[in-house]
Design goal:
Length: 389
């Protein structure tokens, strides 16, 4: 017994109401408001069993509101619940103010009938709080329903924002739009990783705020690209335009390879049709193996990467003509990245030359972009590092 229980019992007993309620309607309200009342599903099962011992569907002050089943009878109607669990959940119902104990002198539950057979007095559990607090339970149920609606709305907004940001970042990477897409990708992954398995409304609200800020930044980078394209008077369609984010010119990106004695140079007859907006660090993060074949055993700039690609091309068995065609269609930098990605997956590719020719054919038709290929390599290396780490 606590002071709160005593106060609630006094309020129930002194409240006078002439209303009549459906016991199953108020039961549904209590079920809907169970999180606010601190009740578990087992407690609701026990409450349902208690209500079945009330002879009528309606609860009113004119009728006896005390039910007096034994624990054995309650357990049978509560799907065979164990005695310890039954007592625990009965205490939870009393603590939540759903029912009130009305104890007999000997602690037993029973009813004393009068001369006409009507119940004069009964000892057990009073359902009076269900009648007295029925309006309160209805309001609590409505509050929980409104909270669930808000939760679903915020969850849907977060799902839509995640989808839109994912598509915008992929478009920026695939189209070679200038911008710090590597950082945007990392921030997106970090936000998605913070989504709990069972999020609360507060969790989702904080996450959608972060995702919205990222979406605004991604949209800003894309809008800046569109504005710069218009200001340059470029009539190339947005979906095909790829702008170089490197400070070096296209001519500077073309390597001057040091040829070994007796080796014929691989002549690139056409200038690169694409320039890359991928940071070199991003390429090396996805394709670290190619770095060992750069001049001096490392890759410090785009020229080093393209030089390493020529060496790796030969190791993979890719013919000079296949690589030359890739350079013509994709551009030298893009072809070097493709070779680096192929080398990372060399153990899973039967014919590196055939694979490169297939990529070149798709690029010629406008069906291939390096973005997904590079991001797949980055994810694969991250997963491997996590596994061995």
């Amino acid at each position: 017994m606590t002071l709160a229980l005593v106060r609630r019992q006094i309020e129930t007993e002194t409240s006078s109401t002439d209303k009549v309620i459906d016991k199953w309607r108020v039961f549904r309200d209590v079920s809907d408001a169970r999180t606010l009342l601190g009740l578990q599903d087992r407690a609701l099962t026990v409450l349902n069993a208690l209500l079945t011992f009330h002879p009528t569907t309606e609860l009113s002050e004119e009728k006896n509101l005390v039910v007096f089943p034994s624990n054995a009878q309650l357990s049978a109607r509560a799907n065979g619940i164990a005695g310890t669990t039954l007592r625990k959940n009965l205490a939870a119902l009393v603590e939540a103010g759903i029912v009130i104990r009305k104890d007999s002198p000997n602690g037993k539950r029973y009813a004393r009938k009068g001369a006409g057979g009507s119940i004069e007095d009964a000892y057990g559990f009073s359902l009076g709080p269900l009648l007295a607090r029925s309006d309160e339970f209805a309001l609590m149920a409505q509050e929980v329903a409104a909270e669930h609606r808000r939760f679903r709305m915020v969850k849907d907004r977060l799902s839509i924002a995640r989808r839109d940001v994912r598509k915008l970042i992929s478009a920026g990477i695939e189209e070679g739009i200038p911008g710090d897409w590597e950082q945007a990708e990392a921030y997106y992954i970090e936000i998605a990783a913070r989504i709990p398995r069972r999020p609360t409304l507060a969790d989702l609200t904080a996450l959608i705020d972060d995702m919205s800020l990222l979406q605004e930044e991604v949209v800003r980078m894309l809008e800046n690209h569109v504005k710069s394209t218009k200001s340059d008077g470029n009539d190339i369609a947005y979906g095909r335009h790829i702008q170089n984010s490197n400070t070096e010119s296209c001519n500077e990106l073309e390597p001057s390879f040091e040829m070994k004695q007796g080796e014929k140079p691989e002549v690139i007859t056409k200038p690169a049709t694409q320039t890359q907006a991928f940071p070199l660090s991003m390429v090396l993060r996805g394709c670290p193996e190619i770095a060992a074949f750069g001049p001096g055993g490392g890759v410090g700039n785009w020229r080093d990467l393209m030089s390493a690609a020529v060496t790796v091309r030969s190791m993979l068995g890719v013919s000079p003509s296949a690589y030359e065609e890739a350079c013509e269609v994709m551009g030298q930098a893009a072809a070097a990245i493709a070779i680096a990605c192929i080398y990372e997956r060399a153990g899973h590719i039967n014919s590196a030359g055939g694979y490169l020719r297939d990529l070149t054919a798709k690029a010629r038709r406008g069906e291939f972009s390096l973005g997904p290929m590079l991001m797949a390599a980055i994810r694969a290396n991250a997963s491997y590092a996590k596994a061995v780490g």
